[in-house]
Design a protein that fits this description.
- The structure is a homodimer of 242-residue chains.
- Chain A is α+β, with helices and mostly antiparallel strands.
- The first copy, chain A, is built from seven helices and eleven strands.
- In chain A, the strands form three sheets. Chain A has a four-stranded antiparallel sheet with strand order 1-8-3-6. A four-stranded antiparallel sheet of chain A has the order 2-7-4-5. A three-stranded antiparallel sheet of chain A has the order 9-11-10.
- In chain A, strand 10 (212-215) and strand 11 form a beta hairpin.
- In chain A, helix 1 (13-21) crosses helix 3 and helix 5 crosses helix 6.
- The longest helix of chain A has 26 residues, at 125-150.
- At the A-B interface, strand 5 and helix 3 of A face strand 5 and helix 3 of B.
- The first copy, chain A, binds a DNA duplex (30 and 30 nucleotides) through residues 152-153, 184-186, 194-198, 200-201, 203-204.
Chain lengths: 242, 242
DNA sequence: CGCCCCCTTGAAGTGTGTCAAATCGGGTGG
DNA sequence: CCACCCGATTTGACACACTTCAAGGGGGCG
């Protein structure tokens, strides 16, 4: 489930994700590689899309973590969604931006332009990968709402780590139980609707319980099966590999 | 802002909403009216789309309230999004359903088939209305996350009522300060990530403060300007009327 | 009339926030 | 190489928003 699917060794992780969503033609892969040649670097904490601005041209996250965020006038911050390598930015369906949100780099990020899909058999090709990527994005939003609305702080953290693991695995960026975690505890708090103090307490607790290990920007999850059960985790069923 | 835009007196509220999103051709309106002729009634509490089932054929909510909901194995329930008259069901982009969610009627609901859009000038027609409707749906998801993640119970209720007002106004179903509210306090709690007991307490408080009036399935909001400021409410800017 | 669902209210418990201070670690400049 | 600094993490004590549990009341409907 969490193993890399496409597994074309020379390919960017971001493109592995797209290739995992739908089989790509050689020409499309070439177009991706070509787009990646002229990539754009964004330092951490920099805004990628400012609030209310027209979306950037359609882009792909090549590396690094970004997020969509809502900032309240009194300073409260809520991270609305995560953007990981292989995720798309600015593929929105409508002309004008509706959202009172901006997109911010959480770590250093590299972006490249998203090649326009070409005609292909239904169910294959870049067009299908983009479609599925959008559907997954919506799925993750639903999961985020359920997480924040009904899970305890402890459960939110677990559920969130399981999702990150699932998503990074699509791009071959997470092994079965080891998940990169380059965020500050404050960013985590902003994503989960908590305070950084409380996030810290829960992480300590989980470590003491032997549920997770935290080392150098990595989490190791122990007994994933049990953890999934604990938070009633339902993996997104992307029909992979065919 | 919250006045009815399309205002074709004889038209269903649901269709007023679509007409407000994009100017429709006479033939498209005819197609809608025709679809409404064979509508489907769903009683309250009945499932419309079961979890994991393939989506129904694309449909329009003609009347009543429904919601997308996530049910946890231990009985916890979280309402993920609201479906109001004029909203679309099953317009998803991908073949298979990804979500571990179902769609349930909160009140009695009537549905009709969503006519396939026909070619039209960009920015007009049913196709555009469907597009914008989808974009709005995403926008409301973002708002829901920010609401649940960062607002207090009191603020969540206000913010949510302001959103319902905005959305119903699109279909000419809410006047400036009077908003239909046909949900039980328990359903409200499930939407806002609270308990029904606490929802009740906050509603009592708001009534005592003179912020709202509750009468017969209607809320009356007093001093909306101030309420918007209180929760930093950002209306969805649908460029209406042209 | 009596049942059931929903709303209402109280008292007590607890999960999470707030405030504050100490420690850690990595980078920078002297 | 050390001194310093800064942001991030860690920990404690206390406050409070929200939940839990429980009981009572009101209204519609068979």
């Amino acid at each position: 489930m969490s193993t890399c699917v496409a597994n074309i060794p020379t390919l960017e992780p971001a493109f592995q994700r797209l290739a995992a969503l739908a089989p790509l033609g050689a020409d499309e892969i070439a177009a991706l590689v070509d787009a990646a040649a002229s990539s754009q670097r964004v330092p951490a904490h920099r805004e990628i899309v400012a609030e209310g601005q027209p979306a950037v041209r359609p882009s792909i996250v090549l590396s690094g973590w970004a997020c969509r965020v809502r900032l309240f006038s009194d300073g409260r911050r809520q991270i609305l969604s995560l953007l990981l390598p292989g995720d798309l930015i600015g593929m929105c369906r409508q002309r004008e931006p509706l959202a009172a949100t901006s997109i911010v780099a959480l770590t250093a990020v590299t972006l490249c332009r998203a090649p326009a899909p070409r005609e292909a058999a239904a169910g294959t090709g870049l067009a299908e990968a983009y479609l599925l990527s959008g559907a997954l994005e919506e799925f993750y939003l639903f999961r985020h709402i359920a997480r924040i609305g009904r899970l305890s702080a402890y459960e939110r953290l677990l559920d969130w780590m399981l999702e990150v693991r699932e998503r990074l695995a699509l791009a071959c960026l997470a092994s079965d139980d080891r998940v990169p975690l380059p965020l500050t505890q404050e960013a985590l708090a902003d994503a989960l609707g908590l305070t950084s103090v409380h996030v810290n307490r829960m992480l300590q607790l989980m470590r003491r319980e032997g549920v997770i290990e935290l080392t150098g920007g990595m989490v190791r999850l122990h007994d994933i099966q049990r953890l999934c059960q604990l938070v009633d985790y339902r993996p997104g069923r992307v029909r992979v590999g065919q």
